Amino acid sequence: xxxxxxxxxxxxxxxxxxxxxxxxxxxxxxxxxxxxxxxxxxxxxxxxxxxxxxxxx
Length: 57
Fold this sequence. Notes:
Elements: H1 5-19, H2 21-56
Helix pairs in contact: 1-2
């Protein structure tokens, strides 16, 4: 199922009506921070992986 431009615009307008602009801005900021934290945690974990492999040898 593909979403076209019309459907995306309808979803955005509906979300604005239900939640209001300020609430959506807060949710967007929280989502962005969560994604940023997740990416940094993944990078830290990948950096630690080679150390584990070296200890096994």
